[in-house]
Amino acid sequence: MMLNLILAAMQVMVIVMFGFVLTRAGYFTAEKQKWLSQINLVFFTPCLLFSNIASVISFQQLLAYWPIPVFYMCFAGLAFICGYIISRIVRLDNAYRRFVLACVMFSNTNSLPIAVITSLAISEAGSVLFWNADDTQQAVAARGISYALFYAIFGNLLRWSYGYSLLQRWEGDDDDTSTVADYTDRRDPLSSPQLEYGSLHSSSTAPSSAASSIANIDIRRTSSVTLENNQGHLTLTTSAKQNNKPINETTHLLSFPTLPNDDLQTPSNDNNGTHEPKLIQTNSTIVRVAKQIHKCMTPPLYAALFALFVGLTTPLKHLMFDKSSFLYPCLTSAIQNCGRAAVPLILVCLGAQLTDIYHSPQDNNQVKYRPVVAAISARMFIMPLLVIPIVLTFAAYGDQWSAIATDPVFSVMMIILGCTPTAINMVQISQVTGCFENEMLRVLFWSYGVICVPLFTLIVFFALNIVDKVI
After folding, report:
1. Can you tell me where the transmembrane regions are (predicted)?
2. How far apart are the first and last CA of the chain?
């Protein structure tokens, strides 16, 4: 089993090495890294989430697997408390507290746990995981994978909403730390920390688009209010102020039509009467609410929510995931194939970023190691001490509430999921937002390259021995 665990970790490191070699050979520049990370975030990762979530979720599993979301909320709450206390003890500022929280709260819920449980099922220790005398190795692996995928649903929902916001630059960070802003200065112009997929207009808009928007504003000078995008916030500017204020052609203006102000007397014809202002006010309220919601969303989160809708809607799920249906071979299989590229792309980009650190030793002076040590300590050493007793308590006394409490695979899988290192795709978020890139790279390097194999092997052996005695 230990050999299989080492091979699973080595597979990750080999793909990372491919990215390192490609970058050293000159095929993978910083601009291409940024572009590939963005493509992965807006397309390949959503495909992965949709195919994994929609194919697994159902009302029956929601009822049968109710302990899994309870365990996830418990682990996430403990991770939040643990990360917050550790960051306070080492006296980190607000920005690095968020970094530690992101590293501790969001762990690897797919690649490593699935590889470990699959290896355990086919190893000599697999007999410990048999639920009954008729159980098989294939059934053990299938149950373990289903538990992991169901657990990952809730992890992905929180990771691509709250986790994404934790790794962004917040207002006031420049006063607390300079590292967050320094990342963008050292990288290519595409690495804007203000790049938010929840914003209404991408920061990569060409100047020509801005000039076109300016021309449209000049044509509509009779309107008194214009929406403009200023540093990711929406502000209202009257046309009188715009006439006196020089227009910056690089300013990203929204291409929405101008909306009338409530203070203005909008001319109305006899047919509309007083209904037109009310309609406009209602529409503007809906637009504002939609904008606020959209600012908090990301493409992976949209994909996860849509996957929940499809998975919980039986006709849609049958249409897309039944192998005899028309859409499965043409649409669903295409989405699944695209989703399989997400994790390798993340690892290749990780190797490319390690190359940047290798060639830029001066960047090491800009990296603060206290948050790195705090994140690794909390995630890899403290969380197992909290997770294992909780799972074993449920295994010993939870059979009166849920039948899966007596399944050894469930207990081992919950321990594995609660003790895995920081999720690999956290570096993808850091690269897109331009924040905490080098710190995240070091957390992943030490977690997967040095600590994971020996520590995780001990945790798995301990879990197997305890579960064998308790269940």
Report:
1. 6-27, 39-59, 65-87, 99-122, 142-160, 301-321, 372-397, 409-429, 441-467
2. 21
Pick the more confident residue, 429 or 252.
Answer: 429
Calculate the dihedral angle through the C-alpha atoms of 24, 25, 26, 31, rounding to the nearest 10 degrees.
-50
Q: Identify the top-confidence range among 78-92, 297-311, 397-411.
A: 78-92
**Integer Cα distance of 399 and 338 in angstroms:** 40
Cα torsion angle, 463, 468, 470, 471, sign: positive
- E strands, 116-267, are 225-230, 233-238
Domains and CATH numbers, the chain: 2-196+298-470 (1.20.1530), 207-295 (no CATH)
DSSP state of 258: P
Tell me the sheet residues that pair with 235.
228
Please give the sequence-ordered ranges of beta strands (E in DSSP) within 133-186, or none if there are none: none
Taking the CA atoms of residue 441, residue 446, residue 449 and residue 454 in that order, the dihedral angle to the nearest 10 degrees is -150
pTM of the predicted structure, to 2 decimals:
0.65
Q: What is the gyration radius of the CA atoms in the chain, in angstroms?
A: 25
Q: How many CB atoms lie within 10 A of CB 60?
A: 8
Between 50 and 208, residue with greater pLDDT: 50
- Can you tell me the distance from the alpha carbon of 293 to that of 213, in angstroms, rounded to the nearest whole number? 24
Rounded CA gap, 421 and 289, in Å? 37
Burial class of residue 439 (count of CB atoms within 10 Å of its CB; 0-12, 13-18, 19+): buried
* Separation between Cα atoms, residue 233 and residue 215, nearest integer Å: 22
Distance (Å, whole) CA 24 – CA 464? 42
Instruction: Quickly count: other Cβ atoms within 10 Å of residue 9's Cβ.
Output: 20
Cα–Cα distance for residue pair 396/409, rounded to 1 Å: 14
Helices and strands counted in the chain (H then E): 25, 2
Nearest to 374, CA basis, from 100, 155, 141, 46? 100
Rounded to whole angstroms, the Cα distance separating 346 from 335 reads 18
Residues 226-242 as b/e (b if ≥16 CB within 10 A, e otherwise) read: bbbbeebeeeeeebeeb
